[in-house]
Each structure stands twice: as structure tokens, then as C-alpha cells.
Amino acid sequence: MEKKVLIITACCLLVLLFSCSVDKKESKKREVTLAPAAAPPKTASWSKKMDGYWLLSNYFDGVLETKSIDKYRRMRMFKQAIILKVENDSLIHIGSLGGSYHKKIPLIHNYDSLAILERAYVLQYDSTQDKIFIHEKQIEGRSNEGIDYSFRRLKEKESRLIEGIKELHEEQWPDFSSNITSFLVDSLLLGAYVPIGNNKMSDTLFLQKKRGKKYGLKGFKGYNSFYMENGFGTHHPYRPHNGISFDDTLSHEFEIFSWEWIRDELVFVKMVPGGHENYVQDRRFIYRYKRAK
Predict the structure, then answer these.
(1) CA nearest 121: which of 158, 108, 215?
(2) How deeply is 34 buried, as exposed, middle or buried, from its count of CB atoms within 10 A (0-12, 13-18, 19+)?
(3) What is the per-residue pLDDT across 214-232, written as a single tens digit (0 to 9) for each?
(4) In the chain, where are the structural domains located?
(5) Most CB contacts within 10 A, which of 196, 209, 240, 244?
(6) What separation, in Å, do the N-terminal and C-terminal C-alpha atoms of the chain show?
(7) How many whole angstroms separate alpha carbon 64 and alpha carbon 244?
(8) Rounded to whole angstroms, how far apart are CA atoms 122 and 254?
(9) Alpha-carbon distance 103 to 263, whole Å?
(10) Taking the CB of residue 252, how many other CB atoms lie within 10 A of it?
(11) pTM of the full predicted structure?
């Protein structure tokens, strides 16, 4: 009898131990499957760090790297948001079409997005790179462009882009357009050039700093000023080429040329009316130059 009691007691202890073991395993399973804690919302101090101007890197950096303008004019984002201004927990954007795409929108305080432009573009801030990236949403009836857009902060040496701009507003869009033209001309074209190859021009060509509304020009058929097309607006008669006009401010005569950097050569090709308000190249008149040393 005593032996039976001991056996029953032992069995009860084994069952109890097994039950505890199962409970511990179930507890561990429950711990593993718990959902992670939700990320805290963005705060006002977070958005304050983003205050300032942001440039569309694809356009500004792309143009300076390739020394070409027209191909970047065709980007959708160029029309909608070439520059951003973050201030007071909101974002203002303006594109190359001016008032058509000038808008002020509130920042979104979560970790998925910063703001949404035109229902199609989700802006996401990457704090490690200090850049704003664009994710294009799939919209029915519209094909995705497939371009990875990003914005970077305005550099100190680029502050001339916003010179005289009190507020990023459509009324000051012409001033902003003019500032961009000046920045690109200074970066891509200004300087002295010597004719090379079959160029019939014997004089050194001088593309000079701005005087009034136009830039100075010397050494080409007596013209004394030039103006470069910057791709803003809706009328682009020189596409798919970069357009430039050489003018005589006294006689009001002018000629239109395409311009292109081919390695270290600056090449001008005369352009003539081609119908439907467009111009085409007349390749009988090609002028090649190299920078003067």
C-alpha cells in the first residue's frame, strides 16, 4: 500500500513538471509573436531641422554634370517642383511652369512620408543622407516615369538662386527663372573661346557677364549680347536642342543657334524656322570653339 502511494505521488509530480514546462514554452511563443512597439511620431523639432530651401538634384546636378539643359526640361518633377521651401511645419513647392504648380502643403508627421505632391509623389526624408527622396505612386491611367528623384539642401554658393526672392511665390517666379538662367550661364558658358576646325570666325569669342537683362558678347559677326533658353514655361521652339540667341541691341538683328558641349569643344549650329513655331538646325553653319588658355 505504501509503495502504491509513492508511485501515485511520483506520477503526480511528473504531470505537474510537464505542465509547467508546456506553460513556459507557450509563454515564450507568445513573447516572440508580440508585435513591435509603434514608432513614435515625428515632432515639431524634427521638422524644424528641415527648414530651408531644397533643390531638385536631378535637374541642377544633372545639368552641371552633362552641360545640357533640354533633356532635363522634359522631367515631370521639373515642371512641378524644381525647388522646395520647408518652413513653419509646411512645404512650399514651385516648378518650371510657375503658378500652375505653386502650392503650400502641410508636412505629414509620420515615418512613412513627409508630404504628397499632386496625389502622385510621396516625399520621404532620409536623415542619414540629409536628402528628400521621391516615391512615385501607381495611378490608374498614368504610366510611371521610372526616375529616382531627390532633393538636396541649397548650398551656400548657390544662394544666388534665391537672391531677391522674399517669398517662394508665383508672383516672383519670373525672378526665380532669371536667377536660374544666370546661374546656368555662369556655370556652363561664360569665358573666352578660340575658333577651331572649319570655323570661319577668326576672332576670339567672348561670352561675358550680364549687363542689364542680357549677357555681353564679342567676336561674332558684330553681335553684342546673347540670351540662353533655360527650359522654363511651355514654349520650347528649339527642342530637342539647347537654344541660344546672339543679338545686336542697336540694330535689333539676331540669330538663333543650338549649343552643345562635345567633350572639351563648345559647338554652335545655326537654327532656322522649321514651321509650327519650331526651329531646326541648318548644319551648313557649324562653329566649333575651345576655351582660350
Answers:
(1) 108
(2) exposed
(3) 899 999 999 999 999 887 8
(4) 44-184, 189-291
(5) 244
(6) 116
(7) 17
(8) 45
(9) 40
(10) 7
(11) 0.75
